[in-house]
């Protein structure tokens, strides 16, 4: 990871002073860096380390950072990981251009090194992420998301990128095609479990996780705990809750009532169980790989994604 950080920093070099200042700011406020970790551990568990693995991790991180910068503009978000977002400091126009720059850097990194398969894998993930986001926006208007549609959204929106991390790591390490596909499917399951964990945070004590609860309800996002709770509600109760989410989502008291409804309906326990089942299914897929410190660390990382407190 130390070597990666140096390579990643170099991959964002530019001769434009303003851009250089912004990219340094981005590097300084990096998050948990779970995605490059998935690239490296998947590579180590599947084959051999080489320069292509480092480029795969840099490509993933460049594309991921670009999507975060653009997401903050779309969501009009002024904070990211406890820091001011790019659009908060430099306004929307510059933030969009910085996102475009990071995206182009990722593309060029692949093309210049003829890493065309890595580029195909990650480009497919960006397509799926965009489709998932648009599907969620479309469904939020009618608040008619079923459990099946929810899983379709998060598989595209969140899981596709973690799936591409694992596939890229395996491919870059020289793994056989069937191993690359296995790691992609493994990453997809982990990504789904990761998103369910994020959705559960919305119902927890805000002082524990460092962010306010009820954000998804305020944004009219139908997540698994609420979907399950509504499926168990009477027709009149269902209409009342949906009306609250649609019309009173900025009223803290009303949002608290929805959170209470979900808790009393067993929505949190149901989502937790689904997350654990998917996580266990993902870990079982690793049994086909030879035993190694990388495979063990992958299991540890998967457990972290579902047990994390933030």
Q: What is the strand content?
A: under 5%
Q: Biggest β-sheet, characterized?
A: 2 strands, antiparallel
Helix-strand pattern: HHHHEEHHHHHHHHHHH
Helical region count?
A: 15
Radius of gyration: 20 Å
User: What is the CATH H-level superfamily?
Assistant: Farnesyl Diphosphate Synthase
Distance between the termini: 21 Å
What is the level 1 CATH name? Mainly Alpha
Shape: globular
Mean pLDDT: 86
Extended strand count: 2
Give the class from helix and strand content and strand pairing. mainly alpha
CATH topology: Farnesyl Diphosphate Synthase
Helix content: over 70%
Unreliable stretches covering 5 or more consecutive residues: 207-211
- What's the arrangement of strands in the largest beta sheet? 1-2
Total of domains: 1
CATH architecture: Orthogonal Bundle
Verbal overview:
- The structure is a single chain.
- With 310 residues, this protein is an all-alpha fold.
- The protein has a single domain, classed as Farnesyl Diphosphate Synthase (Orthogonal Bundle).
- It is built from 15 helices and two strands.
- It has a two-stranded antiparallel sheet.
